[in-house]
Specification:
Blueprint: E1 4-7, E2 10-13, E3 24-25, E4 41-43, E5 47-50, E6 56-59, H1 60-64, H2 79-82
Parallel strand pairs: 3-6
Antiparallel strand pairs: 1-2, 4-5, 5-6
Length: 83
């Protein structure tokens, strides 16, 4: 049985695969803006913004990590540096 979420009195399937196509900015690929069709982007840590019309897209790499936008590639700080 599929999980259902109630939004405004309507039941909505809580399955990202059923939501359809999601436009994402993909690094190292030509990304055409869904708003104007151009390819100039300002890229940040979690999103990219079209340089012409301002359409914002999530980064594919950022969404692959889940909800957190920061990741640590190293272990915890030693006790003397943590203070």
């Amino acid at each position: 049985m599929m999980n259902m979420v109630t939004v405004g009195g309507e039941s909505v399937a809580h399955d990202p695969g059923l939501r359809g196509y999601h436009v994402l900015y993909r690094e190292n690929e030509i990304n055409h803006c869904p708003g104007c069709g151009r390819t100039h982007w300002y890229v940040g840590r979690v999103s990219a913004e079209c340089g012409f019309c301002g359409t914002a897209l999530a980064l594919a790499e950022a969404t692959a990590r889940g909800h957190g936008s920061l990741s640590r590639a190293h272990g915890p700080l030693p006790m003397e540096q943590a203070a």
